[in-house]
Amino acid sequence: MAKALLLALSLSGLTFRSAGVVRKYHYVDTALSWEDARTHCKAKFANLATVTKQEDADGLLQALPSTGSYAWIGLHDDLTKLSWSMTNVSFNNHRNYSNWEMEKIDNISSRDRCILMKTSGTWQDRSCEEEQLLVCYDEESPNTYVFVNKSMNWRDAKTFCRAHHTDLAFVRNSSENGRIAALLPADAWIGLFRVSWKKWSDQERVSFTDWGEGQPDSKANASCGAADAATATWWDDDCSLKRPFVCYTIQKTQKARVKLKFLSEADLMDPAVHQQLLEQHWAPAHVLAAEKKGAGIKSAALSHFLLLVHTF
Length: 312
Ligand SMILES: *[C@@H]1O[C@H](CO)[C@@H](O)[C@H](O)[C@H]1NC(C)=O
Ligand SMILES: *[C@@H]1O[C@H](CO)[C@@H](O)[C@H](O)[C@H]1NC(C)=O
Ligand SMILES: *[C@@H]1O[C@H](CO)[C@@H](O)[C@H](O)[C@H]1NC(C)=O
Ligand SMILES: *[C@@H]1O[C@H](CO)[C@@H](O)[C@H](O)[C@H]1NC(C)=O
Ligand SMILES: *[C@@H]1O[C@H](CO)[C@@H](O)[C@H](O)[C@H]1NC(C)=O
Ligand SMILES: *[C@@H]1O[C@H](CO)[C@@H](O)[C@H](O)[C@H]1NC(C)=O
Description:
single chain, alpha+beta, Mannose-Binding Protein A, Chain A, 2 domains, 7-stranded mixed beta sheet, disordered N terminus, binds 2-acetamido-2-deoxy-beta-D-glucopyranose, L-selectin CD62 antigen-like family member L, signal, lectin, carbohydrate binding, C-type_lectin_CS
């Protein structure tokens, strides 16, 4: 596992041009939950369907039987994933300090949400468009936190704090939370937020969507995406429902020439390494045997990609 991680770290530093990638979609007429469908796609294809452009959306539609019911695609909304606007400070809802007004956060709606601190110090998730006062974090200020008596939406609040201070306030423990709350004459934005429907199941960023009217409406645990052939649009739905699904593979041959520091002796055929590569889009379908070629150079045909591994 340690070896696999090393390899993944070295890979992640590389640039890789994926422009022109064409996905081929495969409809699987077996009713499974979203998670099981994903497992199936990863075993037999690349992953559940990822759609990044209109051409993909058209291809996906063609793969669906016109009479079929909704079919799972790779859209998933991780309801527990929140972040601080200060990007070098991590937030994990299960491990880090939080002070939610209601103990749930798993029930946060499937929309972009931004977090408001009440004067009592408790946290509430709100629409990011609401105009609220704000509290900034300021590295230079002796008081660390600065209450700003101006109403604005969360995005503008972030911009304001970054321009005049360091960033929107972040909180690490109850004493910090108490210090901020003590400053507040009224409720105020802090730096915590959630972007809904952020990533496809293969970790591709969601940049293109084709939601049906009023979707996603986030009713009843609806945090997985399904495609509907009849309306040619996408709907959010309860992930535990069993539905047929659509997987993808990469169709077009692409060449990517990369160099990477081979930090470990990790074997490209090691299943753990293989998994890491898959997660980073390196090998949609199958990693072909890595050929050892001369001193320290390995060349592996990764599905349709060519990967050159240099040893330094
Ligand atoms: C985080 O980044 C900010 C700038 O955005 C910087 O001022 C601050 O020192 C960094 N904090 C840590 C802990 O790295
Ligand atoms: C989740 O939110 C809905 C709508 O706001 C509410 O009706 C429901 O009781 C909440 N469920 C839990 C477990 O908090
Ligand atoms: C904030 O501004 C309003 C007017 O915009 C003013 O009435 C109020 O006293 C101010 N509060 C603080 C704490 O400065
Ligand atoms: C959240 O927890 C992680 C690890 O448990 C820690 O590295 C990180 O600094 C914590 N974030 C905050 C804001 O305290
Ligand atoms: C809260 O976190 C800050 C920053 O890590 C630390 O300096 C402080 O001692 C902590 N306070 C408590 C009570 O844990
Ligand atoms: C949402 O999922 C949770 C856990 O899976 C379950 O307890 C809850 O009843 C579900 N809520 C609805 C409205 O389906």
